[in-house]
Amino acid sequence: MVVYALRRLVQTLPVLFLSSILVFGLVRFIPGDPAMLIAGPDALPEQIVAARARLGLDKPIYVQYAIWLGQVVRGDLGVSILNGYPVFDLIARKFLATLQLTAGGLLVALCVSLPLGILSSVRRGGWFERLTSLVVALGQAIPTFWLGILLVLVFSLQLKWLPPSGQVAFSQKPGLALRLMILPSLTLGFYSATVLTRFLKSSMLEVMEMDYVRTARAKGLAETGVLTRHVLKNALIPVVTILGLQLGAFLGGAVVTESIFDWPGLGRLMLQAIGTRDYPVLQGTVLFIVTTFVCVTLITDLTYGFLDPRIRYQ
């Protein structure tokens, strides 16, 4: 298992290097010049040139990349062009809010998908399976932004049960913080719940037709034991893949959800950096999101090895 983990870790290094090149290059395609924003709309050409030199934008792009990569390797993501605040500190503050929203969305996804996927595969052909299929179809057809707006209209404006937007720390007002998390967590987690439900159901149905499951039942094992010890563990392998991808997307920042509910996470930070052409903040945020996604993928692969030892030797 240790050799398998080290091999997968080494394989992630080229991915991170190529990702840094893509991040740095794609950011430069954003229309607009940060130097003009810094110098102001009435700035003279000499002032714009001086601003570009101060920001290092007058150097060739490969030199800019080399300087930035050297800083990143040392753990320095630079400072914001607009306010001079360290990018790493900005990301750390916003990541806590995104992590909080991710936990809520993941909890919703698991609490919905596990019972629906398991029960619909066990009770095939009944009303529960048809109801599950309807929920899955609706969840994958409804756009996230529309669901978020609908939840705000119903539960905040009409029923007045929950606050419409905002975020506070649990250490300050735990009750209000929990109520503020409900709507964005439902919005973020509902789509993932339907995806996980569909994959869990199809995976369990496939595993239930395997010979070893028939053998376990022929030996007289209780149905609960067959499902937990033989079916569910093997059916979770493809589900772990989808769960890892969804978790990586959550941690990367759900831009739409954070915008609807005024949630101060990484998604909003990235949008603000795009609007202000703040290259260091945008580069640092996107690279952090990519790194987080790669780390989640690595953890997912290691989980494969735990669930199925055969994968370690491939």
Give the biggest sheet: none
Indicate the low-confidence ranges by residue numbers.
none
Going by CATH, the homologous superfamily of the largest domain would be MetI-like
Portion in strands:
under 5%
Quickly count the helices: 13
Number of strands: 0
**From the 3D coordinates, which CATH architecture of the largest domain would you assign?**
Orthogonal Bundle
Which shape, going by the Cα principal axes?
A: globular
Specify the structural class.
mainly alpha
CATH topology of the largest domain: MetI-like fold
Share in helix: over 70%
What would the average pLDDT be, to the nearest integer? 81
What's the structural domain tally? 2
InterPro entries: BPD_transp_1_N, MetI-like, MetI-like_sf
Subcellular location: Cell membrane
Membrane topology: Multi-pass membrane protein
Family: Belongs to the binding-protein-dependent transport system permease family.
Describe, in plain words, how this protein is organized in 3D.
The structure is a single chain. The chain is mostly helical and 314 residues long. The protein folds into 2 domains: 32-76, no CATH class; 87-307, MetI-like (MetI-like fold), CATH 1.10.3720. Helix content is 76%, strand content 0%. The protein has 13 helices and no strands. It has helices spanning 2-27, 34-39, 45-55, 61-73, 87-122, 127-141, 144-158, 174-207, 211-218, 223-252, 255-260, 266-276, 279-307. α7 (144-158) packs across α8 (174-207). The radius of gyration is 24 Å and the shape is globular. It starts with a helix and ends in a 7-residue tail after the last helix. The mean pLDDT is 81.
